Batch of 2 targets.
Target 1
Amino acid sequence: MATGNINVTAENIFPIIKKFLYSDHEIFLRELISNATDATLKLKHLSTLGEVKGDIGNPIIEIKVDKDKKEIRIIDQGIGMTGEEVEKYINQVAFSGAEEFVEKYKDKVEDSGIIGHFGLGFYSSFMVASKVEIFTKSFVEGSKAVRWECDGSPKYTLEETDKTTRGTEIVLHIDEDSLEFLEEGKITQLLNKYNKFMPIPIKFGTREESLPLPEGAAEDAKPEKITVDNIVNNPTPAWTKNPTDLSDEDYKEFYRELYPMQFEEPLFNIHLNVDYPFNLTGILYFPKLSKSVDPMKDKIQLYQNQVFVTDNVEGIVPDFLQMLRGVIDSPDIPLNVSRSYLQADGAVKKISSYITRKVADKLISLFKNDRKAFEAKWDDIKVIIEYGMLSEEKFFEKSDKFALYPTVDKEYFTFEELVEEIKPTQTDKDDKVVILYASDVKSQHSYIDAAKEKGYQVLLLDSPIVSHLIQKLEGSKENIQFVRVDADHVDNLIKKDENQISKLSDEEKETLKPIIEEAIPKETYTVQLEAMDSNANPFMITQPEFMRRMKEMQATGGGGMMGMGNFPDMYNLVVNTNNELVGEILNTKTKKKQERLIKQAFDLAKLSQGLLHGEELTTFIKRSFQMIK
Ligand code: ADP
Ligand code: MG
């Protein structure tokens, strides 16, 4: 028997580990199972290299909990350790066993990705245990089994023991303040969270399984029951497989496995698979985004070699894709570092742009392969795509190939197609192509109608960040301009050279303007006299594009508009000087009657914009009844 001091620089590292290293004590189980998995994968690997004698069978990992003895055991059938190896890998904390292994089998292990990257993994057991024992026997023939024991002080014991089977058994003597980990339910929950997809089968207890009834069995026959190992994980989850071996149904099945409480099917998936310049696999799903979807739930999960790490993928997955679901698995993402460090890390940046590129490529291929189906999904995916176009320049550049611009009649154009389509009719006198859009079909109905009447196409752009998006499009595309249909009278939306002849003289106009201004709240409404078709309504309310868009951008978090204060709602009252009623208003001699006419016409215009409420509405109704009396 040997005793000695564990080679750590700090006088006693364990309290530090316990308190500070991991805020989450529960990860001890993940760490120990990771080690058991590494040891088993190493064994399998060495076996394929012919360096292990005999058949290794199908090694599994077993977790046992003994509540009475307050023990948790993690048992593997992996490579085990000799006494010297325990000295080296366990006692010399600073020395990474993983590094040693890589050194030794450098050119042979490259493809296997079997090295854990968890640093002080083993010592995390002291977060929950007051004493830890290791029973281990190396796969190397003739090696003697050893027992190591440590109670949390830097002192350890190492001696020979009589373990006869290959592998390692870790015994945790659970501390009084961590007794919750002796609950079967707690362990099951942890296994489910961290180990659901680990590559070696993990056994936790047994369960009963009913055998199928033999043919011709009596109706009331009871199926025979057998006891089987309760394997808690799926060692070969979909993302570890080759995309060509997976059907649509397999992907959906995996989605259900990932999110058992999620009943809505995903729209489509993206299989990630890259090994240079970094290693990353995974499957991302575009979910159907409904208002009831809780973005805090069912998030993308990050794994390292099939070990769950976190579902906070901030910094790794670009912001706009965080509404996606699925799995990312990469050994190249540094863990246990701060988020700001992550964002500065070169490899992580590459990962983020790789993911962006893959998503863009997938969208392009979906669009190309089945445009109709893609159009049908557009409403569900547009917010993510538009957000991506705004936040990732690379994505924006690619988006021309798949971003769609639907009209109010549900016709879908790409940007290029749209400009091509409307150029002949919607080019203004300065040779700018004016793209008309609506944000709400119902409330902007009359404006949409008027524009369509003129033979214009009207887009329906109704996502919350649209004002930012069109601002960006105007900034990056040549000679185009977006104008919402209610921004002006239809003849002014796209300014052409033709001028309507005004029935009113300039003098008459000058008389009319102040009369109207006096009858309406002029802080909010600017009177704009226009000679239009005599059949067009006498009064109409428009909301100038610029102010409205700035206001919207400010409301949805526009950069660069800080300090400009709050934009008030500003409207124009467009008065059609060719409409008969307007002539009548001008010629009405009784001041009171004139004012009533203006107010009535103004209220009707407001009504059609949905701007008439409360007291104003009541007054309007009263006045209307009086007028028809
Ligand atoms: P890491 O896993 O990052 O190397 P750990 O502290 O988790 O760091 O483990 C230290 C070393 O101890 C491992 O690299 C390995 O050599 C050895 N080890 C730990 N657990 C086992 C095990 N179950 N079987 C064999 N070796 C193990
Ligand atoms: Mg480890």
Target 2
Amino acid sequence: MGAPHVALFPFPDHGHVTPMLQLALHLASRGAYVTFINAELGHQQLPSFTEYLNQTANLKYAHLSVGISALEGPLTLDVVVSDSSGLGNVESSSLPVLHRSLESQSSALEKLLTDLNGAQNWPSFSCLISDAFMPWTASVAQKLQVSWMVFWTPSATRFYLSTKALGHKEMNTELQKLANITIGLSPESTDVFDLSRLRNPHRRQLLMARVEGTKMADVILLNTFDALEEEAVKELAKDFPIRSLGPLCFGTGLKASKANEESLSWLDRQAPHSILYISFGSKAMLQGRPLEQLAFGIESSNMPFLWVLRSGGEGLPEGFVERTEARSKIMKWVPQKQVLEHRAIGAFFTHCGWNSVLEAVVEGVPMICWPTFGDQPTNKLVIEQKWRIGRGIQGGEVDAENIRQVIQDVVGNAEFRQRGSLLSRSAKSALGQGGTSDQNFKFLMQELAVREHHVASC
Ligand code: UDP
């Protein structure tokens, strides 16, 4: 059987494109021919990677250059966090418009795949792997008569809770029961899952469509490893053809461009484990009271810090920058994976996006958790209660003194770092020779090869 040719199609958002890119690199390093197709918005977010990608002989980059239609203003997926609860207002985002626009590109995707099939000296595609956010891609795979696999980018725990709780009439009660009994989590309220907050019918419908879509997939790929989310993975495996392949951020050699390395040279000059790294990912934007209280909390912790503020510092309390500049660096963007790998990092103040969480797990960095929306509250619970490598800012009124206290608790907790080191070892060995994710990759390569054989003999 020859090497399979797989098309990968990520949802065009930074937190989705990056792990799909990591998946592409892992598959290519295992001998698959990979075509990475990026929609316009995703393409705009990855300019520094496109050149790099084309350097791998069996990995090609293709750009689905259909613009975002039906948009009235510039598209932004930013989630503004400005009320005192510290949670973001997702309803205000452009997500529904983006979904509609992407779905309207179905025939363009089909045409691109057909054209690419004829143009390359590679075997024909035998499989389309697309993000679970785009269940409509199943029909594209069907028309092209290739296998369809789904890549679920959030955690397995989130997937499990969504599959079980969403369709349930008594969703809140069901969620609480599932979390307690099956996963072993004790949430103070079901709200922390942000699944029970899906009052907006459109958001609820989108999540339902995603979950329903996975039922059509030949295989569901997860960015986790079996030991990390043991219970959720076991439960899911009873009903779904899943493969845990993560943590995909490990072992690809994917690096950010040189232009971003100022933060790293600043870290080189700092003492080991001395720096608090603060980042809320690529979408959450803190404003107003949450931003102000966070700044005061960081300042009174007296820790030196590296803070990613995509607004560049706008909205910070007066004099904050001047008072802290001797022990701080504020930047709009940093190469986060390399930052977390750096020996100077002592703790990570995070919004608990799944990619950020996995990057911290791989490096064994303790976390201070301030989830803002979506799957992040679930991730926070797992960090606090299952892995016990961090603590969260408690809900309700966001308060500087509370923030200072949690920072100091996490930074001074040697057990968090010890458990973090063990988890880091376990994460790295999952993808090492004979590890669970390595094995799952081998199974996946066999499955792809069988499909390739089937396509070739048709
Ligand atoms: N990231 C980065 N530099 C930054 C901030 C974020 O490289 O300054 C990356 C981070 O490493 C992660 C991704 O952006 O891979 C954020 O994804 P995550 O799932 O954590 O959160 P989201 O952005 O989707 O909310």
